[in-house]
Amino acid sequence: MTTDGTVSESLNGTPATPPRFVMGADSGVMSDDKTVIVATTTDTSSGSPRSVLRIYQLVNIEAAASATAPDTVGGQPLTFALADLNGPHAFRELGVGTSTVTASGTMTIDGTSGAATFTAYTDTAGAAAPAGFTLAFDQANQPADKQNGILTSADAPSVNGKLGDFKDMLVLTRTDAAGVSRLTIALK
Asked: Which CATH architecture has domain 82-187?
């Protein structure tokens, strides 16, 4: 990584099963708070070029027990509540199905019920806003004594998401009713 946050990826040693590809030099950028790396590349290993987006997010940052005595055995776990999601979130979305669609707008989340609706929506196909869904924190799959910020949806089972530890970034994947796989990144 360079001092301006430009990120490169390389293999460290000889893995038992190497990845299909490694992001090249200067392919990514790190956020100012050093919790997210976003990188892009073109994969040509299958013969035809394919665009790839990787998002690395540092999750479950745990605070020290105190400024003078850092807790080296786990720190204080973060807590997440539906209220943390409340309000409008500006989003960008990539949808891949029979064609590729990009979308942007505002997704508004009710902090009491978890209901997420697209209150402003524009996409490159000229489609109407997709149906909303109800978000909930995945309590069942949390490590003991931890809150992990993982989001699911009972009314849209394909939803998988993560609320960032600073509670201002939401990353979701889902498959909509038309079979389009969608990656949504929303900022509060």
From this structure: Beta Barrel (2.40)
